[in-house]
Amino acid sequence: MRRLRVRDPSGLCWGCGGFIPYTLSPQKRNIIEKYPRGVAIEGSSHKRIERKRRVAFELPNVVLDLDAEDSPHVRPFDDHDAAQQKVKWGYNPIIPEVEQRVSVLTTEMLVDRRKMSRMLAARHSPFKISDLDVLSVALLGGKSTVSPPPGDGTMDYRAGRTNSLLQGRDRALHLNGIPERILAGDANTIIQFMLHRQRLDPITKRPASVSTDGEADRPDTFRHAIDRCKSLSQLERLCTHGLSLGQDAISPASVDHIAHYLKGSRNISYRHNTKQALKFVNNLTMRQLSTNAGLNSSMSLLGLALAVELRLLPAVMQYLHICLSQGFIGNAQDKPETLEAVASGILAALEQGQGPERGTRPELFTLLTGRTLAGSTVQPSLFGSGIVSREEGSLPHHIYVQLLGQLGAFRLLWHSWKPGADDKMRQQYEQLYFRAFIRCAEVLHNAEVVTGLDCTTATGDLERDAELDLQAINALDAYHASSTNSQAPYASHVKDLLTWGDIKEVFESDGIHQAAARINDLMARI
To answer: What is the pTM of this model?
Structure first.
């Protein structure tokens, strides 16, 4: 230990402790007592700083033994040494590192779980169904029908098939292999695959189990897919895929189901939806006609109803011809509401100015009365050449009279009045026949310049007069088709030139010959 030398006070510093000599001055003694570990004396020419005494860093024995770890005489680090190390230092450097890594791993797992949840929740995702799932469906889901909801106890397990590939895939597939996404939403992405299974079903067909009520345990695949469609565009793609696999892929029962679906899902308050539905029915009908397939009554009647609702005369005539030729309407058991709806649509279209095209009005007259230019054979028609007297008080007769006026069939118009010319009928239909005759006169007003238009000949026979009216309508139709007149054909132009008294004389004439002469006199006044 270094001793303090009093004879050298200029460098006095108490750095090592010890006894304080009695010879020290009070000033130095106070400094030593106040700063026992040493201090630099200000103002001294010999400045020397004594460093503070520091405790030496003590290494544990296990660290010192690392230098001799290759020595066979050194024991390995064991749990007892670890416990001693933790007691001595109170810190295990491995635990915080592991905890940090676990925390990072947990965060990454949460992020990945959110990503997968978004993928699984997406409507269209390639992760919904894998190639293995499709393969398992192809190998194990040979039945062509969609399985019932899980848990209803109607699955047929007698086939002895192994569904090991489907184990644990209940979220992605139903028991028969139809993807959950398809059953819950869009039914178009896998419809080709479903119809392919339907075509292959007779090869792998097995006896279907029967439920307690005697019905089959599974509905038809195609009908089930139709019910899953949520829009008309989905139904269009569904039927397009079905027809691409063959004309027989859509059975008549399926067509009936399509018509039922359109009737139930079509919103009549939106004209665009009705137009799209009519386009779809047109395409499906044309595909059936192009392959000489039998037409379906429900689909044809639906097309007629849509065309009538849209007031499209060409479409109404097309579906009216189909329904009449196939016997879907035109029978004695037809309801008056059907005749009224169809005739009202035709009348509204004519009042809008539709039908000036060549051949439209003669064909329309044939559809209404059954008379043709080709011969005397009467074709199926909506009304026939006339309506019997018991129907004169009905609304279809009301519309029939207006249609005769729109077409210019004055002979049939006179015949429709004659069978029931009593006071009650005249009082009820005076305004009706007045408007019909005025319209008929507007259509025939230029008869003298139309080649082949005969407005003077009449026979008194209903069928023969119907043929004469058809010939006149055809001649007038040919004239307007070749005319260069800027005025719209069949336009309204009569303005209060005729009175009901003048027209009343026509209908109360003793015979049709006298009525025809008076009609020509009235048309000459226009």
So the answer is: 0.56
